[in-house]
Design a protein that fits this description.
Helix content: 25-40%
Oligomer: single chain
Strand order of the largest sheet: 1-4-5-6-7-9-10-11
Number of helices: 9
Order of helices and strands: EEEHEHHEEHEEHEHEHEHH
Structural class: alpha/beta
Largest sheet: 8 strands, parallel, barrel
């Protein structure tokens, strides 16, 4: 179990070139983000506010257009990197064919989302090109149920089995994310799965997100084995501010 507090990964959901407020995984209803950190919904401005106001330089970027099957926002990714940020990028990767410039050595982490990945057979070719250190496997859930891509080929529908298979294929960085909990402020709902995986994967980086509403939530998840926590809404409405984040850090 990690002995240090979890890293805070600020979430940046982008749709149509704008930062949007994600609530409950209902992406068609997402509206422009309203944040105390910056008056606009410009993604770069929000990402820089994460860094400059909160000291967080590792944003999680969900490119919602790419996840839905559209082209990835490569210029946005490059601008984040050019500003010295170290983004986690979910660009709706389905197979190694979708990596494009993301396969090039950069400071970006490539997120492999269960909801888009074409099953376990897609993982080895991706790791051959990118390497396990730059990949995070996102166990995408909706009310605790895995969200699989069409024709996915996973041999089990149990989230614990899926996570272990991904780890056995070489992915040592995992994210537990229940999309139905995002923006709801009612907890992540995956604490039991986190503890179960931490016992079986003691050396893995286990991140968790969706529904974290306070710095106390983040601290509890860290004590339970989370290496990192993804937070969005609570940063934008001030429930978690720079002072709270400073108290979490060692």
């Amino acid at each position: 179990m990690p002995s240090r507090p979890p890293r805070v990964i600020p979430v940046l959901d982008v749709k149509g070139g704008r930062a949007v407020h994600a609530v409950g995984g209902l992406r068609s209803h997402y509206g422009d983000l309203r944040s105390l950190l910056h008056p606009s919904s410009d993604p770069i401005s929000i990402a820089l506010a994460y860094r400059d106001a909160l000291g967080l330089d590792e944003p999680y970027l969900a490119d919602l257009d790419a996840i839905a099957g559209g082209p990835p926002s490569l210029s946005l990714y490059n601008r984040l990197i050019d500003h010295g940020l170290r983004p986690w990028i979910d660009a709706g990767i389905r197979s190694s064919d979708d990596l494009g410039p993301l396969a090039d050595p950069t400071s970006a982490t490539v997120v492999l989302g269960l909801e888009t990945l074409r099953g376990p057979r897609a993982i080895p070719p991706i790791l051959d090109r990118v390497g396990p250190g730059r990949c995070v496997f996102s166990l995408d859930l909706f009310e605790g149920v895995p969200r699989f891509a069409p024709g996915d080929g996973w041999p089990s529908r149990d989230p614990a089995d899926v996570a272990l298979l991904a780890a056995n294929l070489g992915l040592r960085r995992l994210l537990l994310l229940d999309l139905a909990r995002v923006g709801r402020g009612r907890g992540v709902g995956t604490e039991g799965l986190l503890a179960w995986l931490r016992d079986r994967l003691p050396d893995a980086e286990l991140a968790i997100g969706g529904g974290i509403s306070s710095i106390e939530d983040a601290a509890r998840l860290g004590a339970a084995g989370a290496s990192a926590v993804l937070i969005g809404s609570a940063l934008h409405d001030g429930r978690i501010d720079a002072r709270a984040l400073a108290a979490l850090r060692p």
